[in-house]
Design a protein that fits this description.
By secondary structure, the protein is mostly helical. It has one domain (about 10-139). The protein has helices at about 10-40, 45-65, 75-100, 105-139. The protein starts with 7 loop residues before the first helix and ends with a helix.
């Protein structure tokens, strides 16, 4: 039985929180990408339109999370972040194509760049913050 000074339960709770926060961040950033795109093209039906645009990418991200077990290290840029990013775009575009939504090269490029910035960007910031924290602890 763990003692009150055993750090294992704290580490487990921290890991669960990291997984939950990373999954929520990915979903929020994918929704933001869809909202920005909808706004840029001045399309109506704000909430339903954003969800219509976002669902293939959200599904792609979920499949990448599950298929590649991203929860094991959700904040790592490689391989987790890259897997989520490319899975989101590739599977999202595939789902858009099979459901009759628009898939054109300029949109694929914008999605790759935007989602790459979003999904890798916060992971890069988290990695830098972690390195800075470790460096301060070693002083």
């Amino acid at each position: 039985m763990p003692s009150s000074t055993d750090p294992a339960p704290v580490r487990a709770a921290t890991a669960r929180n990291a997984v939950l926060l990373a999954a929520l961040a990915d979903a929020a950033l994918i929704l933001t990408f869809a909202a920005i795109g909808r706004d840029a093209h001045q399309r109506g039906d704000v909430i339903s339109g954003v969800l219509l645009t976002a669902w293939p990418f959200l599904a792609g991200a979920a499949i990448a999370w599950l298929g590649l077990r991203v929860w094991r290290a959700p904040l790592r840029v490689w391989p987790a972040g890259v897997a989520v990013w490319l899975g989101t775009v590739a599977l999202g575009m595939g789902l858009r194509a099979v459901t009759g939504q628009t898939v054109v090269l300029p949109f694929v490029i914008v999605a790759l760049l935007s989602l790459g910035t979003f999904l890798l960007g916060y992971r890069l910031i988290a990695a830098a913050a972690g390195r800075l924290k470790r460096r301060r602890l070693l002083r």
